[in-house]
Design a protein that fits this description.
The protein is an alpha+beta fold. Helices cover 31% and strands 17% of the residues.
């Protein structure tokens, strides 16, 4: 039967102290965060031997497995805040050359000249007719004559048309 292993986590400023007891041994370590402390516990379980590999490990924070799970999952699912990326502006060759020659630099916000349109391109056709005009002048398509139906009334039958 597998022996239960207990891992006790204690926060110490930014670090975590962890103590693992099981299989007649006790191991302790410090880690820089709760995730690193949990990884350290996994390493300690491997050190405890073959019988500890199938054992149940109970992780406790302040005596509560639920409190450990909440703190651990919060650390796993929280993204670290990243510092804003500052991208330096590249030095413009014209400015550095102008400064070296003692000339005033070109306008930095000037828009470069756009290329001329290609002469071989034809302009696109424009729609000038009104779609309503096209509908009014369109010839109606010939339609089939209305279908006539022949209804035979049996002798002696009473229908509204027969009564009239």
């Amino acid at each position: 039967m597998a022996v239960p292993i207990t891992a006790i986590y204690v926060p110490e400023n930014d670090d975590w102290a962890v103590s693992v007891t099981g299989a007649g041994r006790s191991l302790t370590a410090r880690a820089p965060g709760i995730i690193a402390a949990r990884d350290q516990v996994d390493q300690f379980v491997e050190e405890l031997g073959a019988e500890a590999k199938g054992a149940t490990v109970v992780h406790l924070l302040n005596g509560s497995a639920l409190e450990f799970t909440a703190a651990y999952m919060t650390a796993r699912l929280t993204r670290p805040e990243q510092a804003p990326v500052e991208v330096p502006e590249p030095a413009r060759p014209a400015e550095s050359e102008a400064k070296a020659a003692g000339e005033p630099a070109a306008e930095p916000d000037a828009v470069p000249a756009q290329p001329a349109p290609k002469p071989d391109k034809k302009p696109k056709a424009k729609l000038t007719a009104n779609i309503g005009d096209a509908l009014e002048t369109a010839k109606p398509t010939p339609s089939a004559p209305p279908a006539t139906s022949s209804i035979k009334v049996a002798a002696g039958a009473s229908t509204p048309a027969a009564r009239a």
